[in-house]
Amino acid sequence: MFTNEMRRLTNNDTWRTSSKEKNRLWLQVANQEFEFQGTTLVAFLDNATAALDQGYDSRRIATVVSLYSQLETGEELGIQSREAFDASIKIPIGFSSLVKATTDYTISIKKIEGPDLLASEVFLFDSVKNVITNLSSENYTFTAFADDYKSRFTVFFSQEVLGVAGFASEDITLLPNPARDQVVLANPKGLTLEQAVFYDISGRVVKEVTLTGMGSAKTIDISDLGSAMYLVQLSGVDVSIGKRLIKE
């Protein structure tokens, strides 16, 4: 028997209604030689945020081989819930191994669900190798030794477009951002870019880079720039877009 005395009169935020559309991405890292693997989940929900959400996020469990996502504040998560899906969202991904041997690891999409994610391509950026891989079409294999590689990878997305003239700004990405001495211009759709012009906050041109024939990625040396925020104007055939870059 339940009575009114049993009711909780203060604010109760431990229960939330579920999102109508759940977009979820499971990433897996595996090692064939020693048969170790680890999985991490990133979910996009209307009720979640980019911060640590109690009842949604779960800290990672240390295993022999681990793949985990990271918050801006540094928390390492085995399950991370983000806000409603947006193709501009970038997810820092860490990798940890206790295997004391230099061996190969492969990162792949274990499972993906939800209309927004299924309509997008999932890309993985390796900041050590400066390599971008379309995980929607192929797996990524790299070599590592026993260590904790915090934020080594970044997962980002690109939604399908109807043509070059109608591309989305998310189809071109600067990684990492903030950056230090180098930044990688990721162009996974292979848009025809010709030039990148860097402006400081006063509108002064401080750097120009030729992009002709760059392909899907180009590493740009920014060690000559001071610590500040810059606008990077990218231009090419039917392409003109501005990106913000923070130089640490």
Q: Could you estimate the helical fraction of the residues in percent?
A: under 10%
Rg over CA atoms: 21 Å
Q: Helix count?
A: 1
Please state the structural category. Answer: mainly beta
Low-confidence stretches: 13-19, 161-167
Notes on the protein architecture:
The chain has one helix and 18 strands. It is mainly β and about 250 residues long. The protein has two domains: about 25-160, no CATH class; about 165-245, Immunoglobulin-like, CATH 2.60.40. The strands form three sheets. Strands 1, 2, 3, 4, 5, 6, 7, 8, 9, 10 and 11 form an eleven-stranded mixed β-sheet that branches. Strand 14 and strand 15 form a beta hairpin. The longest helix is centred in the middle third of the chain and has 4 residues, at about 115-120. It is globular and about 70 Å long. The N and C termini lie far apart (about 60 Å).
Break the fold down into its secondary structure elements and pairings.
Layout: E1 23-31, E2 36-44, E3 58-59, E4 65-70, E5 76-82, E6 91-97, E7 103-113, H1 115-118, E8 120-126, E9 131-134, E10 140-144, E11 147-159, E12 173-175, E13 182-186, E14 193-199, E15 205-210, E16 217-221, E17 228-236, E18 239-247
